[in-house]
Amino acid sequence: MPLHQQAIDFLNYAAASGVPRLHSLSPQEARAFVDGGEAIGPGPQVAAAEDIIIPVGDTEIPARVYRPGSSAATIVWFHGGGWVVGGLDSHDAMCRMLANAAGATVISVAYRLAPEHPFPTPLEDCWDALQWVASQWPSTPLIVGGDSAGGNLATVCARRARDRGGPEVALQVLVYPITDHNMTTGSYREHGDENLMLGAKDMAWFFDHYVPNSADRDNSEVSPLRTPDLSGLPQAIVVIDEYDPLRDEGLAYVKRLREAGVEVTLHFYDDMLHVFFQFVNVFKRGDEAVNQVGTDIRAAISQRPTGVGTPEGAV
After folding, report:
1. Could you tell me how many helices (H) and strands (E) the chain has, helices first?
2. Predicted confidence (pLDDT) per residue in 228-278, tens digit
3. Model's pTM, two decimal places?
4. Number of domains in the chain
5. Is 148 an annotated catalytic residue?
6. Is residue 165 part of a domain?
7. Domain that holds residue 127
8. Which of 169, 244, 258, 302 has the most CB atoms at less than 10 Å from its CB?
9. For residue 61, what is the domain's CATH number?
């Protein structure tokens, strides 16, 4: 399908406003454009929202907890931004909408960013945060999710949980995840050089900051599509969009998961572009996608065996 008119209008507005491409900026300059979430605007009200601190390694990182009226699960969310930009404010509106849609507590994690903190520090922060949340919210099913680079971190953390004996992850939510460093796929050829929200030069810029040693990019904790065995991973909800260099690697990861016997619910938005899920308020299809994922989460949690995670006991 053709690109949605709202996406076309937004791209035209950005071009007319002279918004620079991320790869032309320093990380600090790029963060000034991305991190505040001003272009998205405020999200819906939730029953409660508070900023907290999570211990990781020998330091602490910020996080934000969103509580709906009642909560049947706990979602740990890792934000997108190529491991370089993004934070609590850039994803605030989306996390609010997701908490209400899923009927679940959402904990948005502000992991440390590259290049100041290259691989594996952002991953280790997310892994430590997931374990900490599991210890603090022990009585509800645990879900790990993220968009783009956050989807990369989420699925690697789900695999670590499988391989390291827990915590038990009931569900992984992967929104147009980065799953490989290969930038020669069909979707890169089709959309990598287009004037969209994400291009090949942007992705090269992200990888150069996050994994400056190119030899490390074959590591399956950077490129999870290269994981030899994906069996035994938790059920997945995956969101992919058409006008996105990451499209094909996301679809390839879905195929690998299914071949390994992992149940996958795939939502493919053939008229959308990268970041649409984060840009609620801006893109109607973003609102629809977040609410659809929330509905999927409710359904998945309701099908869990009786006694495996209950709404009571969340702190």
Report:
1. 9, 8
2. 999 999 999 999 999 999 999 999 999 999 999 999 999 999 999 999 999
3. 0.95
4. 1
5. yes
6. yes
7. 5-302
8. 244
9. 3.40.50.1820
